[in-house]
Design brief:
The chain has 330 residues and is an alpha/beta fold. The protein has helices spanning 16-29, 43-49, 55-64, 83-90, 140-156, 174-186, 199-208, 220-234, 271-283, 287-303, 316-329, and strands spanning 5-10, 34-39, 66-69, 95-100, 109-114, 124-128, 131-134, 161-166, 193-198, 215-218, 241-246, 249-254.
C-alpha cells in the first residue's frame, strides 16, 4: 500500500496509551504511510470535557473512517456511559468481529456480535422505587444486516458454517425475530450451512466441542459473554483482537478492558491489540500488510517472548520490539 492513509488514535484509559503507542509502532514497521490524528475519549476524557466521547472525536472518526483505540474505563452503576456506547451508536458501528483461537490446530472461531441493539441501547427506568426495568430491542433491519455480515464473512473467509446463537425459546418476540430473520438470510447463501443453537448450549460447545463452531453470530449481551469465554479458553483476554465496523468506519482494539491495575507498569500483553490491527488491515484491503503481521504474530505465539498473562516474563516493550522486527522482515 503506497497511498497515504489517515488513522485516528484514541488512547483511552488504563493501559490504553501503552497499547496505542505499541500499535502505532507496529503499523509503522509495516512501512505504511500513516498520518495520525489523535483524539480523546473514555473516562479521562470525561474529566476533561464532561463527556466520554467528545463531538470532535466522533467527527474525526466519521471523517477518516479508520481508528485504533485503547480500552475505556466505565464505572458500574451511576450515570456515566462508556465512550463505546456513544461511538458505536452514534456512528452505527453495528458489527463487532472477534476471532477466538480456542484450538491451536484449527482456524479461530469467528464471533460476530451485534453492536447497537439488544440491551445495548440502555433504555431503562425505575417503574417504582423497588423495580427497575429495561427494554431489549431487536429490529428486522438490525437482525438482517448483522446476519448478512456473518454470512458475507463466512463466504469471504471460505468458512463452511454460520451458527446463530439465541434465546428464542424464552424471548419469543425479540430473539424469535432474530431467528426467523436469520433463516431468511441463510436462504441467500445455499453453499454455507446454517444452524441455530441456544446460548447455554453454545457455551458448552465452546468448551467441549469447539470444532462444531465456525462463524457464530449473536446478540450484544450473549456475544460479550461468549467472547470472554473464548478468550479464556484461548489462554487470556490478551490474545483476542476486536474490530467494530459500520458504514465506512472501522475501529480496532483488543477485546479486554482497561486493566487499570497494570497501567504504567509495562506488563500488559499487546498481542490482542495487534490482532485487532490485523482485522483493521483486512478491512482496509491491505492484504500484504495483514499477511505480514499475521506471520509476525504466528512467530510470537510459536517461539517469541511470552507475556506475563500467559505465564511468561516478557513485558509490553519486548513483545512490541519482537513483533515490529518480525513484521518488518516478513
Amino acid at each position: 500500500m503506497t497511498e497515504r492513509i489517515t488513522i485516528v488514535r484514541i488512547a483511552g484509559d488504563g493501559v490504553g496509551p501503552e497499547l496505542v503507542e505499541s500499535g502505532s509502532r507496529v503499523l509503522e514497521s509495516l512501512g505504511l504511510p500513516v498520518t495520525w490524528v489523535d483524539a480523546d475519549a473514555g473516562l479521562t476524557a470525561y474529566h476533561r470535557h464532561g463527556t466520554t466521547a467528545p463531538q470532535e472525536t466522533l467527527d474525526a472518526l466519521r471523517t477518516h473512517g479508520l481508528a485504533i483505540k485503547g480500552p475505556f474505563r466505565t464505572p458500574s452503576g451511576g450515570t456515566i456511559r462508556s465512550g463505546n456506547h456513544y461511538i458505536r451508536r452514534g456512528l452505527d458501528l453495528y458489527a463487532c468481529l472477534r476471532p477466538l483461537p480456542i484450538r491451536q490446530d484449527r482456524p479461530p472461531m469467528l464471533l460476530v456480535r451485534e453492536n447497537t441493539e439488544d440491551l445495548y441501547g440502555a433504555i431503562e427506568w425505575m417503574a417504582s422505587p423497588d423495580v427497575a426495568q429495561a427494554v431489549k430491542v431487536a429490529s428486522r433491519g438490525g437482525c438482517e444486516r448483522i446476519v448478512r455480515y456473518a454470512f458475507e464473512l463466512a463466504r469471504r473467509e471460505r468458512r463452511a458454517k454460520v451458527t446463530l446463537v439465541h434465546k428464542a425459546n424464552n424471548l419469543k418476540l425479540t430473539e424469535g425475530l432474530f431467528l426467523s430473520t436469520a433463516r431468511e438470510v441463510a436462504a441467500d447463501y445455499p453453499e454455507i450451512e446454517f444452524e441455530d443453537v441456544l446460548s447455554d448450549t453454545a457455551a458448552a460447545l465452546m468448551v467441549r466441542e469447539p470444532e462444531r463452531l465456525d462463524v457464530v453470530v449473536t446478540s450484544h449481551t450473549v456475544g460479550d459473554i461468549l467472547s470472554s469465554l473464548g478468550a479464556a479458553l484461548a489462554g487470556s483476554l490478551g490474545v483476542v483482537g476486536s474490530l467494530d465496523s459500520g458504514p465506512g468506519i472501522h475501529i480496532a482494539e483488543g477485546c479486554h478492558g482497561d486493566a487499570g491495575d497494570l497501567a504504567g507498569k509495562g506488563t500488559v500483553n499487546p498481542a490482542a491489540f495487534f490482532e485487532g490491527i490485523v482485522l483493521l488491515l483486512d478491512a482496509m484491503n491491505a492484504e500484504r500488510e495483514a499477511a505480514r503481521l499475521r506471520t509476525a504474530l504466528t512467530r510470537l505465539r510459536t517461539g517469541g517472548p511470552r507475556a506475563y498473562d500467559l505465564g511468561g516474563g516478557s513485558g509490553t516493550a519486548e513483545i512490541t520490539e519482537f513483533v515490529c522486527a518480525e513484521a518488518a522482515a516478513s
